[in-house]
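To illustrate the input format used throughout this study, we show a single complete record. The first block contains the structure-token representation of the backbone; no residue identities are included at this stage. The design step must infer an amino acid for every position from geometry alone.
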């Protein structure tokens, strides 16, 4: 059986390690250059706080390589440098915090501490069930959230207007342009049409 824990039997979980004392003379073993070697960037202060991917000042590899389409391009909305953010609010939260017939707006959501800022758009998501008729005003709604709110007898108000579904673009196949005939091809066409013209003249 292990000994009882008493003040006289306390021990550290790991053995203590002595701190490396640098710059305390040549006899200490860590004097003169204090383990940093001779000159260079790594011998200076702050040299070990470089960001990941730092290559000594030369162009980093992530900037040297070509970029593909994706979340690094400016038109890759809502991802990338122009990403738009929205604060999610689930239906289960509205079920808990609001009474039947209440009006749900970003201001009331902030008062109930369901969102943090009024400057960021609010999107209502369909996680959970809703059994109360609420009039919800938000910047965005998921399809499931909109259906559940209306099924419970409530109403939905889009603060930025209801989004219009985008039409898929269909590309029409362009007719192939007729290639101009070479001189040899034109002569062959003329030779093929001459006998037919002679036969028509004889019949006449």
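Output of the design step:
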């Amino acid at each position: 059986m292990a000994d009882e824990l008493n003040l006289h039997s306390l021990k550290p979980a790991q053995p203590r390690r002595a701190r490396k004392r640098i710059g305390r003379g040549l006899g200490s073993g860590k004097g003169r250059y204090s383990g940093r070697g001779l000159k260079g960037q790594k011998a200076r202060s702050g040299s070990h706080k470089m960001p990941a991917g730092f290559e000594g000042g030369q162009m980093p590899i992530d900037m040297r390589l070509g970029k593909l389409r994706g979340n690094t391009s400016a038109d890759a909305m809502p991802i990338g440098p122009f990403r738009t953010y929205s604060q999610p609010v689930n239906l289960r939260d509205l079920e808990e915090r609001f009474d039947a017939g209440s009006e749900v707006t970003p201001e009331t959501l902030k008062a109930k501490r369901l969102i943090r800022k009024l400057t960021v758009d609010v999107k209502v998501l369909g996680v959970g069930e809703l059994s109360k008729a609420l009039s919800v005003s938000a910047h965005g709604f998921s399809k499931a959230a909109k259906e559940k709110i209306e099924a419970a007898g409530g109403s939905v108000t889009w603060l930025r207007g209801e989004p219009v579904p985008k039409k898929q673009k269909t590309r029409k196949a362009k007719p192939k342009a007729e290639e101009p005939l070479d001189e040899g091809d034109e002569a062959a066409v003329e030779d093929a049409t001459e006998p037919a013209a002679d036969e028509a003249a004889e019949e006449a």
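Structural context for interpreting the output: DSSP finds five helices and six strands in the chain. The two ends are 129 Å apart (CA to CA).
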